[in-house]
Amino acid sequence: MTFPARNFNPLAVWALILAFGLATSALAYVPPAKQVAAAVAKANLAAKRNRALAMEVTLHRDDSAEAIASGTLITDPSGNARLELRIDGRVERHLRVGARLETTHDGRAHTGELRLPPLHLLQLVQRTSLQTALAALGASGGAIELGYDDDLDAYVLGGRGATSLWVDMESLSPVRIDLPTGIIVRLGPLESFDGVLWPAWLEIQHGEAPRVRLLFRGVTATATSPETFRREWLLPDRQPRP
To answer: How much is the pTM?
Structure first.
């Protein structure tokens, strides 16, 4: 059986190639970092995260429902944060001042697993402040890339290879923080805590190590002072008032 020859139209072929190229370019378009950072800052404000927040938390291994620790976390848009965990009668404290992070176990300096990522990236409501904070953490404040993680399409503020904030392309919700040490902090869906939209949980992944999940049981606005984040707080017998 033979088939009749069809007319070959090279112009139509080139039109298809051009259309495909334009579509691909549109899909790969990345808006300027300033534009996305400004929109993210605006979303942070709308979520009412732009103030010092106190949280009740529980710590879990992998997907276990049983908590291995409980405690409190305070985070401030200034870049200061502190986390206290109580584990079998022991006290574990983490203090973050910008990029500097210190930890004590029962008052003694300790180097261990990350528990307190830079959550102030979720609280900044000015574009310049957000980009400056990323730069202070070792990122390029003006960098932006596209990120794909399972079904997630995200803008990656700060670029890859350093600290970066991933936000969902559509909602601009924070979904992930990457750290230059290879640690990935995944952020759960936003939940309303007394009107404050905050992730329901965060999960810390580092290579093949067991995952650690911090569940947020309550989030409220709080007042802080310079005493709240002093290094003396790391020592149980020297506790400045919040």
So the answer is: 0.85
